């Protein structure tokens, strides 16, 4: 156990408001807050009411004023374009201020919404920060979302303006964005006043006269705009959760709590620091700005902390090979890499011996962080042995905006337990609850919940839907926030997330975790990745079905491997699991952020019409596995 961690956690637990009052000193306030926390506001209370600040100024202007204007803020590395660009804090601030001026000239003011529909280009981050500078509320929609999903978000957010790119770039293809935007605007009831289009040379878009303007031309012609003070409780952004059906669920992030929480996480969890003057350590989050991980750890948290952040346009494999991540780490001197387990599994499948790591100088890489979905222990152990560096899983959600649990490099690291998301961060008290809301004993699986109030940076509500927030998160277990995840807290306080609560299956009256079975399957030497779902059974209620993707180069018979997997589950978990079926598949269906679509496959396996989320990476995978899943 890290005694430093325990001391820090205990200090929060004894005096939570004093803890967050101290953390808030990292941020520049225009007007001091009147209270640290007011329990009477919103569904569960609000942080730092009465205070005013500007998030973009805290990300950029504050560091320039401190003499760090020539420090590198952002490195853009595009494997798709084959080029790299670097922006100092001063250069980034200057572009943000001018784009803010362009938005203001087109009527965007504090409280107005701006939808951003862009790929992984610096202009996406500049657009986010320009909105924050004005006090406008941005809503980033993942680039490439289909027109109906984009239209539903436009109707919910009611933006005054849309910022989009002409196209995105994927290995082997160009994805036209502008036709999707045009179709979405045709479909949407709400009509924004204007659109700024960032033209990429790979595919320039036709502009609609009177509505569309060139992004770069508008920025170049604008006068720089000063930061606008906003209330700590004013929204910074709305981010719609993936896979929503019907009315989109907009997660609200406020300015004050978000800035305080994120600035604290970089030294505490990641141990990344700005150096003196223009020097800085480098962190790289290999995500997309369209997801919460990209919002938090590509854009806002690194800039709030004054360090250097990498934005990568490319894939873990295929741009050009499974050594792409190691090339980026070596070329930019990355200290910490943060990615999703699915990226590692893709690398492991293509390069199981890790030969490509030896082609790059990884001497500056000190740690690998994981999030997005639970990392199976075999993958965690494989990459830890390959890199010889700490592998640090952490658990969080779009709703929380920053990690619920971690291992805290800044406090000496808690113990490495493959499969665990680490200890709760100061600010979170996490317990496993039974269906009645009682505490489960240590080591027993239940519904993971967080004692209220949630800490700063967590969503205080849903966009225009306080009551929906209460129903979704607060009513099931009064006094607690329902995470929707199932898992346990062990005797040391480490959190084990075993899947969503609907990933717990009932086999002949026994509640079993599909995540525990996935651990066993992933431990087989021929398996690259896997998923376990529940299939209806007339006798037992449900029985588990395993789907596995094999490592590249495995030439053994599928039936032989399947038999070994069945035996392995029987040996490790026991006959109670009733695990009798393992299917070898070429690919598993996933969202673009790398989450395996277990619920969709479960619906297919049980004869229901599957709900296919708009975030699916490649719908053709469902067609490939449908014959195998037919009940």
UniProtKB/TrEMBL annotation:
Pfam families named among the record's database cross-references: ACAS_N (PF16177), AMP-binding (PF00501), AMP-binding_C (PF13193)
Domain AMP-dependent synthetase/ligase: from-to ranges: 65-452
Domain of life: Bacteria
Record's keyword annotation contains Ligase: yes
Matching PROSITE patterns: AMP_BINDING
UniProt domain AMP-binding enzyme C-terminal: residue ranges: 517-595
Keywords: Ligase
Residues passing through the membrane, by range: none
Gene3D superfamilies in the record: 3.30.300.30, N-terminal domain of ligase-like
EC top class named in words: ligase
Domain Acetyl-coenzyme A synthetase N-terminal residue range list: 5-59
InterPro entries reported in the protein's UniProt record: ACAS_N, AMP-bd_C, AMP-bd_C_sf, AMP-binding_CS, AMP-dep_synth/lig_dom, ANL_N_sf
Xref: SUPFAM superfamilies: Acetyl-CoA synthetase-like
EC number of this enzyme: 6.2.1.17
GO terms of molecular function: propionate-CoA ligase activity
Family under the similarity heading: Belongs to the ATP-dependent AMP-binding enzyme family.
PANTHER family in the record: ACYL-COA SYNTHETASE (PTHR43347), ACYL-COA SYNTHETASE SHORT-CHAIN FAMILY MEMBER 3, MITOCHONDRIAL (PTHR43347:SF3)
Protein known as: Propionyl-CoA synthetase
């Amino acid at each position: 156990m890290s005694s430093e961690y325990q001391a820090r956690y205990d200090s929060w637990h004894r005096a939570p408001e004093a803890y967050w009052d101290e953390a808030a000193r990292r941020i520049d306030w225009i007007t001091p807050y009147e209270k640290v926390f007011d329990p009477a506001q919103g569904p569960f209370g609000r942080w730092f009411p009465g205070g005013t600040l500007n998030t973009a100024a805290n990300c950029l202007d504050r560091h320039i004023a401190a003499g760090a204007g020539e420090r590198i803020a952002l490195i853009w590395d595009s494997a798709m374009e084959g080029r790299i660009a670097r922006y100092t804090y001063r250069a980034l601030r200057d572009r943000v201020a001018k784009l803010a001026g362009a938005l203001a000239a087109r009527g965007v003011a504090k409280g107005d919404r701006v939808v951003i529909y862009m790929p992984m280009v610096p202009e996406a981050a500049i657009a986010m920060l320009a909105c924050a500078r004005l006090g406008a509320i941005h809503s980033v929609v993942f680039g490439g979302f289909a027109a109906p999903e984009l239209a539903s978000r436009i109707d919910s957010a009611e933006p005054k303006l849309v910022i989009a790119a002409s196209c995105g770039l994927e290995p082997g293809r160009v994805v036209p964005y502008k036709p999707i935007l045009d179709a979405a605007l045709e479909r949407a009831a709400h009509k924004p006043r204007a659109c700024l289009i960032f033209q990429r040379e790979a595919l320039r878009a036709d502009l609609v006269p009177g509505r569309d303007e060139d992004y770069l031309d508008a920025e170049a012609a604008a006068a720089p705009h000063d930061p606008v003070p906003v209330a700590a409780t004013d929204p910074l952004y709305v981010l719609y959760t993936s896979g929503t059906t019907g009315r989109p669920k907009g997660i609200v992030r406020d300015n004050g709590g978000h800035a305080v929480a994120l600035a604290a996480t970089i030294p505490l969890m990641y141990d990344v620091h700005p150096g003196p003057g223009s020097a800085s350590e480098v962190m790289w989050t290999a995500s997309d700005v369209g997801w919460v991980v990209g919002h938090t750890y590509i854009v806002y948290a690194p800039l709030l902390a004054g360090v250097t952040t990498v934005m990568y346009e490319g894939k873990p494999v295929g741009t050009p090979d499974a050594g792409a991540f190691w090339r980026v780490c070596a070329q930019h001197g990355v200290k910490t890499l943060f990615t999703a387990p699915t990226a590692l599994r893709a690398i492991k499948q293509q390069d199981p011996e890790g030969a490509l790591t030896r082609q790059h100088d990884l001497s500056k890489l000190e740690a690998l962080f994981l999030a997005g979905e639970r990392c199976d222990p075999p993958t965690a152990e494989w990459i830890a042995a390959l890199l010889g560096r700490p592998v640090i899983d952490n658990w969080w959600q779009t709703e929380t905006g920053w990690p619920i649990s971690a291992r805290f490099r800044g406090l000496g690291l808690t113990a490495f337990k493959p499969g665990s998301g680490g200890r709760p961060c100061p600010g979170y008290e996490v317990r496993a609850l039974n269906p009645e809301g009682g505490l489960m004993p240590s080591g027993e699986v239940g519904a993971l919940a967080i004692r209220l109030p949630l800490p700063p940076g967590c969503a205080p509500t849903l966009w225009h839907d306080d009551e929906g927030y209460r129903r979704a998160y607060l009513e099931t277990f009064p006094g607690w926030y329902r995470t929707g995840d199932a898992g346990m807290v062990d005797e040391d306080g480490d959190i084990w997330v075993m899947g969503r609560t609907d990933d717990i299956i009932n086999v002949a009256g026994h509640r079993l975790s599909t995540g525990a079975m996935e651990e066993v399957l992933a431990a087989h030497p021929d398996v690259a990745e896997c998923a376990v779902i529940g299939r209806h059974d007339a006798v037992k209620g449900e029985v588990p079905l395993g789907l596995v993707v094999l490592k590249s180069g495995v030439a053994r018979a599928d039936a032989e491997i399947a038999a070994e997997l069945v035996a392995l589950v029987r040996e490790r978990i026991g006959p109670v699991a009733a695990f009798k079926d393992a299917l070898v598949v070429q690919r598993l269906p996933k969202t673009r952020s790398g989450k395996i679509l277990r619920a969709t496959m479960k619906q297919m396996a049980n004869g229901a019409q599957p709900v296919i989320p708009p975030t699916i990476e490649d719908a053709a995978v469902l067609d490939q596995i449908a014959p195998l899943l037919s009940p």
